[in-house]
Amino acid sequence: MEDSPWWRDAVVYEIYVRSFADASGDGVGDLAGVRSRLPYLAALGVDAIWLTPFYPSPMADGGYDVADYRDVDPLFGSLADFDDLVADAHAHGLRLMVDIVPNHSSSTHPWFQKALAAPKGSEERDRYMFRDGPSSTGDGARQEPNNWLSVFGGPAWTQVPDGQWYLHLFAPQQPDFNWRNPEVREEFLDVLRFWLDRGIDGFRIDVAMGLIKAPGLPDTDPGFGATSPIWSRPEVHDIYRDWRRVLDSYPGVRAAVGEVWTDSAEDLALYVRPDELHQSFNFAWLEAPWSATAFREVIDATLRAVPAPTWVLSNHDVVRHTTRYGEGAPDPSIGLARGYAALLAMLALPGSAYLYQGEELGLPEVKNLPPEARQDPIFIRSKGEVLGRDGCRVPLPWSGTAPPFGFGTGGSWLPQPADWAELTAERQAADPSSTLAFYRRALAARRALRGALPDTMSWLEAPSDALFLARGRLVCAINCGTEPVRLPPHERVLISSGALDGPDLPPDTAAWLYTAG
Ligand code: NOJ
User: Fold this and answer.
1) Which of 23, 89, 258, 331 has its CA 20 to 30 A from that of 33?
2) CA dihedral defined by 175, 281, 190, 276, rounded to 10 degrees?
3) Could you give the residue numbers annotated as active site?
4) Which residues form the Glycosyl hydrolase family 13 catalytic domain (predicted)?
5) Above pLDDT 90, what percent of the chain?
6) Between 227 and 141, whose confidence is greater?
7) What pLDDT does 337 receive?
8) pLDDT tens, 248-300?
């Protein structure tokens, strides 16, 4: 593979490994399953794949609780399977990125087990965030060291038998590392090298903005603002400067994308300074409602601040966008049409795009999973009050007419809706009017223009509920309103997300136009 900065305009496909394809027949997706579907991904037309964690883990948070950073959980295969997958992905022209989880380990990680066994103030405890509670705990006084809450609900602290507390920004089974400890820093540099040596093309960094906490761990208000003692502390950037030096020391181009939740594009931009990460996720795009004004604001704010932006509509943590875009609409099934249109907008923008497995099949969020099947710690910790993220993690339907729809031979760890028989990859591959066929066409259209478009874009004048986005000779028109809009002048239509109405673009539709320039 050539040494180009491939990540700048790559289309990266997120594989939530446990739900992608199951080769072993135990109902859980695995690395051999991914490998068996590489031809499908190559035919889809993506440039790279990102694998969610497959490391040894008790799976308290779907593998984001890592017990060993240098191995593969038997549930997902072996290191040999991983090596085969890397080689085969490259043979299919696909880059491969892996998830790295540096904010916290599993509570079963040997370091945490040693910390529990060691006394207060020991070197073992210093690798994590152990603290004493307040000295006076009168009636009603808080017992925990501060007011921080877990992202998954409840306090972010759990007490151990000797009275100390340890910090976990997520589940109690995910203790936070102390990133001010040099041993932690060295350990992760070594973990990076371990996977880079195996030939991977990059990393997706979990909770990239959370590693450093403010000295003294003061109380906080909710939110990602600049004064937060938890998120985006200035010193976190030193970590990524160290990581960048490691990435750059390898042959070829190895890239890193940070999972960064922030309040502003300016803050996001700090992570992608030339000596830090290559990319950071731009969740403002995913959070924007179906509205031309909202889309335009996000696009403008992003492009003003971020030199090599990313765009993403769905991932394994959020409600699938076909469902999201239908919420509150008179007919929720409109969400799928809007999803097509948003895809064309996303693929027309400068930068790179991240797809989430199953969006190319038009999968909706599964809302009616039985409570006993749900596994998300958010659901479990909230005692079912918050549904959590299982609905976007239901294993993919590949073929056949009954569950598990070719996912594997041993059922699927979350039940699939019976009507997914209509949505299997096999069925859609044979149908030119399917979502899969549309995704293939859209990705092929983007590839055909690769290298021919400037890195910048401008707005053409458009009716208030529409956007006309111009990049060189490409104009993407998107209609978020309720009335048809007249398309801007063009030579021909390259692709549209739905039928056009003569010279007009119907509501909830987008089109790529080739213009005289
Ligand atoms: C973000 C991951 O995407 C999510 O799935 C996980 O629960 C949290 N980080 C904690 O690792």
Assistant:
1) 258
2) -120
3) 206, 259
4) 14-393
5) 93
6) 227
7) 97
8) 999 999 999 999 999 899 999 999 999 999 999 999 999 999 999 999 999 99
The b/e string for 373-395 (b: 16+ C-beta within 10 A; e otherwise) is ebbbbbbbbeeeeebbbbbbbbb
How confident is the model over 361-395, as pLDDT tens digits? 999 999 999 999 999 999 998 999 999 999 999 99
Residue 283: closest CA among 256, 306, 263: 263
Nearest CA-CA partner of 496 in 513, 480, 517, 471: 513
Nearest to 497 by CA among 333, 342, 351, 349: 342
C-beta separation of 62 from 394 below 8 A: no
Ligand 1 centroid to residue 32 C-alpha, Å = 23
Rg of the chain on CA atoms, in Å: 23
90: which 2 tokens?
Answer: 């490259």
- Asked whether residue 136 carries a pLDDT value surpassing 60, the answer given is no
Helix/strand/coil percentages in the chain, nearest 5: 30, 15, 55
CA of 16 to the centre of ligand 1 (A): 12
Instruction: Round to whole Å and give the CA distance between 472 and 152.
Output: 45
In this structure, the strands spanning 202-205 and 279-280 are: unpaired
Ligand 1, CB within 6 Å, residue ranges: 61, 64, 101, 170, 206-207, 259, 316-317
Spatial separation of the C-alpha atoms in residues 55 and 75, rounded to whole Å: 9
Nearest CA, atom 2, ligand 1:
206
Q: What is the dihedral of CA 293, 299, 304, 310, to 10 degrees?
A: 160
Residues 312 and 136: their CA atoms lie apart, in Å, by 47
Region 509-517: what's the mean pLDDT? 93
Please tell me the total number of residues recorded for the chain in this structure. Answer: 517
CA dist 49 and 39 (Å) reads 13
Whether the upstream peptide bond of residue 404 has omega within 30° of 0, thus cis, is: yes
Task: Let me know how many helices (H) and strands (E) the chain has, helices first.
Answer: 15, 18
Task: Give the residue from 334, 335, 271 showing the smallest Cα distance to 305.
Answer: 271
The tokens for 196 are 């880079």
Q: Assess whether pLDDT exceeds 60 at residue 137.
A: no
- Token pair of 513, please? 């136009």
Cβ neighbour number for residue 465 with a 10 Å cutoff: 16
Q: Count Cα neighbours of 514 within 13 Å in the Cβ-side half-sphere.
A: 10
Residue 330 CA, ligand 1 centroid: distance in Å: 33
b/e 477-498 (16+ beta carbons within 10 angstroms → b) = bbbbbeebbebbebeeebbbbb
What backbone torsions phi and psi does residue 243 show, to the nearest 5 degrees? -65, -40
Separation between Cα atoms, residue 125 and residue 119, nearest integer Å:
8
User: Does residue 472 have a pLDDT over 60?
Assistant: yes
